Amino acid sequence: MTPRAVLFDCDGVLADTEMVVNAIVADQLTTLGWPLTAAESRHAFLGMALPDMVPRIEARIGPLPPDWAQEISTLIAHEMTARTPAMPGAAEAVRACAAAGLAVAVASNSARAELVAKMRSLDLAHVFADRVFSFEDVDRPKPWPDIYLAAAAACGAAPQDCVVIEDSVPGVRAGIAAGCRVLGFARETPRGVLAAYGAEPFDEMAELPRLLGL
């Protein structure tokens, strides 16, 4: 059945940014005393919002500087303004949904400044318009359902009439908890893991129109 709305995660779905962002995080944490590679950072924090990352980091290295989260968010936003790598086929899938009359929204555990920079760099800001949600726009980040409930409401659709596009376990959990159908893009997370949390795995963004019944 074709949904009324499609709700997209950003990093790892629309933007091929996981290793870029995690290289920045790894560099910062290495300086603070937790030596990490970009790959190790990705494994530790995939899909997590900054508020959930902080306790995990502080358990390892002790209290962070009070402005650390804001500083790293600013660094990421600056990098994304300069260049946000696009996920192959993702922008085309978004535009195919919009052309078919489906409402589209973004729901991301990115900070707001980062997310705005990514949408502009990907040339998708006008497609999503005001239906762009950061963890800062809701009470609780993924894996809580708040952000997908907000995105569904902004699209004028009931959650059960929405499809969520996700690539991480926290994101899949959030979509399922919201009552949405979840398609799991198996790029950063193995198909079996996505399926275990309730997603329907797929491998290429070019598959999305068919999976959505377009």
UniProtKB/TrEMBL annotation:
Pfam families: Hydrolase. Signal peptide: none annotated. Keywords: Magnesium, Metal-binding. The keyword Magnesium applies. One of its GO terms (molecular function) is metal ion binding. InterPro entries: Beta-PGM-like, HAD-like_sf, HAD-SF_hydro_IA, HAD_sf, PGP-like_dom2. The keyword Transmembrane does not apply. Gene3D superfamilies: HAD superfamily/HAD-like (3.40.50.1000), Putative phosphatase, domain 2 (1.10.150.240). Its cofactor is Mg(2+). It comes from the Bacteria. PANTHER family: 6-PHOSPHOGLUCONATE PHOSPHATASE. Belongs to the HAD-like hydrolase superfamily. CbbY/CbbZ/Gph/YieH family. This is HAD family phosphatase. It comes from Neoroseomonas soli.
